[in-house]
């Protein structure tokens, strides 16, 4: 189905990995700790935005002053994720595509998560051996919807952007792929990849 592309690039959360419950629990714990309202539709719309960026958007939207630094709030969520990821993450059906092209085409993961976290989650899901590179938000100056993440993936893979296909579950991610000059596949629509949210 994707034979005419030279490389495959996957988003991680919600695309290659079902981490819906992990991040809903982590965000619920974080927002409750810092007394930030939980607006679930808004949170879904921010899929792919790194933690600090999401917190900044929430604080501005609700006009809040929180007695904690952005770093502290980010660290709390990241620690919750690291302490509980083994309980919630699992591969999605898209892993079958990655397995099919393993050894045939170079593949990378481009994610809004931090690189170390992403590598750990991929390892827990038994997917780490399928991809040559993982590009997290800490590796680029501008995260999604900027094209930097996917352009970095293409650079590391040694493939021209226009010969890459990106698999994404979020509008911001698909926007990033388009801005990078890459084909984008909406995995919710094309592959019916659905995350297991607890609400």
Automatic annotation (TrEMBL):
Source organism's superkingdom? Bacteria
Q: Which GO terms describe its molecular function?
A: sugar-phosphatase activity
Q: Which Pfam families does this entry report, sorted A to Z?
A: Hydrolase (PF00702)
Q: Which InterPro entries does this one have?
A: B-phosphoglucomutase_hydrolase, HAD-like_sf, HAD-like_SPP, HAD-SF_hydro_IA, HAD_sf, PGP-like_dom2
Q: Which family does it belong to?
A: Belongs to the HAD-like hydrolase superfamily. CbbY/CbbZ/Gph/YieH family.
NCBIfam families, alphabetically?
HAD-SF-IA-v3, PGMB-YQAB-SF
Q: What is this protein called?
A: Beta-phosphoglucomutase family hydrolase
